[in-house]
Amino acid sequence: MAKREGLINKLIRQRREKKDAEERAEQEAKQAAQEAVEAQARAEKEAREAAEKARKDAEAAKDKAERDAATRAEAEAQKKAAAARKAEEEARAKAALARAAERRAAAARAAFEEDMAEAEAEAEEKADDLAAAAAERKAKEAKTYVVKAGDSLSVIARDQLGNGRRWREIYELNKGIIGDNPNLIQPGQKLVLPD
């Protein structure tokens, strides 16, 4: 009987241990399931946070890229504007140099023309002086004729030069004395005859 009681107690103990083990296993399973749910929730949360962070990083990268592109574009625009300003300044400087050169050329032309006018005037004056001196010498050396009543230039040319058609030469030499009409010569006029 004691053996039987010992056996019963052993069976009860085994059942109790089995029941405790099952309860522990069930408890562990529940705890594992709870931990799995929590781990899944944590994983989902981390995944959402990672996705949100990735989205924000992408937006930040996009914003940075846009800012960098805008900065580069602005720098390029400033560079082009500076080049345009430099080209404009160079063009203005060249235009100013061209205007100055044009003014110098105009001044040189004016001075040259003035010098030429003075030289021409001097040359004309000298030519006039030489012509007057030559005429005077020629007049001194030239043969002269004093007009008589009834004379005409063709008669004087015939008698003095041997050819009546040379009257024009006499007229050209004495136009200042005779006047505009070669037919009106006056007695007493002293005419220069051509050679």
Précis, in short:
The protein is mostly helical and 195 residues long. Helix content is 82%, strand content 4%. The protein is rod-shaped.
What features would you describe in this structure?
This protein has 195 residues and is mostly helical. Among the domains are: 60-140; 142-195, LysM domain (Membrane-bound Lytic Murein Transglycosylase D, Chain A). The chain is built from four helices and two strands. The protein has helices spanning 2-141, 153-161, 167-173, 175-178; strands at residues 143-146, 190-193. It has a two-stranded antiparallel ribbon. α2 (153-161) crosses α3 (167-173). The protein is rod-shaped and about 210 Å long.
Biggest beta sheet attributes:
2 strands, antiparallel
The H-and-E topology, N to C, reads as HEHHHE
- Strand proportion, as a percent range, falls in under 5%
Question: Could you list the spans in which at least 5 consecutive residues all have pLDDT below 50?
Answer: none
The Rg value, from CA coordinates, equals 68 Å
Annotate the secondary structure layout.
Elements: H1 2-141, E1 143-146, H2 153-161, H3 167-173, H4 175-178, E2 190-193
Antiparallel strand pairs: 1-2
Question: What are the key terms here?
Answer:
195 residues, mainly alpha, Membrane-bound Lytic Murein Transglycosylase D, Chain A, two-stranded antiparallel sheet, 4 helices, 82% helix, 4% strand
